[in-house]
């Protein structure tokens, strides 16, 4: 998703904005640019490519400015190119934008009729000309407000005006924008990491907030110009290691730090001797939970896979009905959800547009809402009735790894809460389940310790064109996740499928060129998946089998085996995810892919 940042203060604004864009690179982008006041108005420097390409054109004749805005673009309308890169300008007005102006074609027609000439294919450029048009008759602030009354869609924008060069105006609607308050300096950005090295004092702006920054300070108002008071929060220094920490890629670092991340997810949340989970950490009211009829979970991508696994945990441990939806579907299906239901959003970033919309739709229909989120202060967390932070630390790699396993841990904890409240789990069983949870970090260390075996499998298979991932029960969502990890970082086509569905079609795909990854669980379904392996082998397929170490002896026909430590069926889903993450990572590296910032992907999809 696009990244935006603005700075006003006493320091070198362009340096700080370019540095801020570096901290936003993880969001995924294809072009970048900056703008700053200069002798001849507002100067724009931008390019297709990466921040290093932008630095080449910014620093060949170093600008000196105390005000600047910057942008990394993730293309929605218009190809990645210099002319589509932000900032965009219209005479006096220059702006950067994260979001989509949905009625831009209508506005573009009106503006063209007024004589404006467009130089890009973007929706954003429309906003520039619209503000410029109103700035002929109104002040800079009024012109921005008037323009936004005409525009429909999602936006976080930062605007400069040549007629008021010591001012930055920022506005947000359905796209994140956070104000950083430093010592005599101010930042506006999509996300805290853009300026966190300079200040942790932040204001998370609300929808339709407008903020005007000047060297003297900031003013926040609504779109009618009425001043608003917003709470200043403090985000502690980022967990040490929001950098690569000696690893080749963030993704590998984040896979390896899962033992610590999962321990952090548990910290302060469990009472092992009592077999209890700290309900206060979920900010949930026990009385409300007792009255819950059904639980709905809405999410996207990897978080949706966690939701699917969570269904098995909650229904089997707590015996509460669970419906899982892709958030992008839930919001449009007129869901039968109401006051006796709980809607759970699962979202690493807390800014995914579809998940936010689903959460708002559930709330509008009267449901209680819980956000399971990894980003402190994110929109989903602030708008939900309750939030459970996964505390897995900053996840910079676009492909989610530690956030995913932390989500599974969170759903396991939530299942134990619901089970103790509903009486479906006795104290001793709960004590045992929490004891097993506490052993997972060390078991993941063991899997990581056998990484070389996974690298060997990757070397055998990295040239394949298609993969199948098969699992049953709670391992079906993990099969989906393993396939997503592979396709999003190695660009190999991969499908996750319920193993029982093989014979209903996918088996037609099987030949020696299609590796099939089987996730074999230790329970009653084991025999059925073992017979699926035989079906594949009988057709010349290659079988990669991932299963508990203690059962590997039962597999006669696997071409490759990956063992994991033994655990209970629910936490087996957590352990199984790790070798699949490593397999995808090493195949991606062997194929020379940009595993931290895969093509076309964004870390947080803040548009529909
Ligand atoms: C994960 O590997 C993907 N990058 C993507 O599917 C992601 O899980 C999805 O966009 C949801 O993001 P969220 O968890 O921040 O809402």
Q: Explain this structure to me?
A:
The chain is α/β, with parallel strands linked by helices and about 600 residues long. Helix content is about 35%, strand content about 25%. The strands form five sheets. The protein has an eight-stranded antiparallel β-sheet with strand order 3-2-4-1-10-9-11-14, with helices on one face. It has a six-stranded antiparallel β-sheet with strand order 5-6-7-8-12-13. The longest helix is centred in the last third of the chain and has 23 residues, at about 425-450. The model has no long low-confidence stretch (mean pLDDT about 95). The structure holds 2-deoxy-2-amino glucitol-6-phosphate (AGP). 2-deoxy-2-amino glucitol-6-phosphate binds near residues 300, 301, 347, 399 and 488. 2-deoxy-2-amino glucitol-6-phosphate binds near residues 303, 347, 398, 400 and 605.
Summarize the structure in short:
The protein is of the alpha/beta class and 608 residues long. The site of 2-deoxy-2-amino glucitol-6-phosphate (AGP) has 16 residues, from helix 9.
């Amino acid at each position: 998703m696009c990244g935006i940042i603005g700075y006003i203060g006493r320091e070198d604004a362009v340096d700080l904005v370019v540095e801020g864009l570096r901290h936003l690179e993880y969001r995924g982008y294809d072009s970048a640019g900056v703008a700053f006041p200069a002798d001849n108005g507002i100067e724009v420097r931008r390019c297709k490519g990466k921040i290093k390409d932008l630095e080449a054109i910014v620093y060949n004749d170093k600008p000196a400015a105390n005000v600047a805005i910057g942008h990394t673009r993730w293309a929605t309308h218009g190809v990645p190119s210099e002319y589509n890169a932000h900032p965009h300008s219209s005479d006096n007005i220059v702006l950067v934008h994260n979001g989509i102006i949905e009625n831009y074609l209508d506005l573009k027609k009106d503006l063209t009729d007024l004589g404006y000439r467009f130089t890009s294919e973007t929706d954003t450029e429309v906003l520039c000309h619209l503000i410029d048009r109103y700035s002929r008759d109104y002040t800079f602030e009024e012109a921005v407000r008037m323009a936004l009354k005409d525009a429909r869609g999602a936006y976080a924008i930062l605007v400069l005006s040549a007629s008021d060069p010591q001012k930055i105006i920022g506005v947000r609607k359905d796209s994140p924008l956070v104000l950083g308050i430093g010592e005599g300096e101010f930042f506006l950005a999509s996300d805290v990491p853009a300026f966190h090295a300079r200040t942790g004092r932040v204001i998370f702006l609300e929808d339709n907030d407008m903020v005007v920054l000047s060297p003297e300070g900031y003013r926040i108002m609504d779109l009618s110009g009425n001043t608003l008071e917003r709470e200043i929060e403090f985000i502690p220094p980022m967990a040490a290691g929001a950098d690569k920490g000696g690893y080749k890629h963030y993704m590998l670092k984040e896979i390896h730090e899962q033992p610590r991340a999962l321990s952090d997810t548990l910290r302060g949340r469990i009472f092992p001797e009592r077999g209890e989970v700290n309900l206060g950490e979920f900010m949930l009211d026990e009385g409300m939970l007792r009255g819950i009829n059904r639980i709905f979970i809405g999410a996207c991508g990897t978080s949706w896979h966690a939701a699917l696994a969570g269904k098995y945990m909650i229904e089997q441990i707590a015996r509460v009905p669970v419906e899982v939806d892709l958030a992008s579907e839930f919001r449009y299906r007129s869901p039968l959800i109401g006051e006796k239901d709980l809607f759970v959003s699962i979202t690493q970033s807390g800014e995914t547009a579809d998940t936010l919309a689903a959460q708002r739709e559930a709330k509008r229909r009267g449901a209680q809402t819980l956000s399971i989120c990894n980003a402190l202060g994110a929109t989903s967390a602030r708008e939900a009735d309750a939030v459970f932070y996964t505390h897995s630390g900053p996840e910079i790699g676009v492909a989610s790894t530690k956030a995913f396993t932390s989500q599974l841990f969170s759903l396991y904890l939530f299942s134990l809460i619901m089970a103790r409240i509903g009486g479906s789990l006795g104290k001793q069983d709960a004590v045992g389940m929490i004891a097993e949870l506490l052993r997972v970090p060390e078991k993941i260390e063991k899997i990581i310790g056998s990484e070389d075996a996974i690298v060997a499998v990757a070397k055998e298979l990295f040239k394949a064109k298609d993969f199948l991932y098969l699992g049953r029960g709670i391992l079906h969502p993990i099969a989906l996740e393993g396939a997503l990890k592979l396709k999003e970082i190695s660009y190999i086509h991969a499908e996750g499928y319920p193993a029982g569905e093989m014979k209903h079609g996918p088996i037609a795909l099987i030949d020696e060129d299609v590796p099939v990854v089987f996730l074999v669980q230790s329970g009653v379904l084991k025999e059925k998946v073992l017979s699926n392996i035989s079906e594949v082998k009988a057709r010349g397929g290659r079988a990669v089998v991932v299963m508990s170490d203690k059962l590997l002896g039962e597999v006669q026909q696997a071409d490759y085996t990956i063992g994991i430590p033994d655990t209970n069926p629910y936490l087996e889903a957590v352990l199984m995810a790790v070798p699949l993450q490593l397999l995808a990572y090493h195949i991606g590296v062997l194929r020379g892919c940009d595993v931290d910032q895969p093509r076309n992907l964004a870390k947080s999809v803040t548009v529909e």
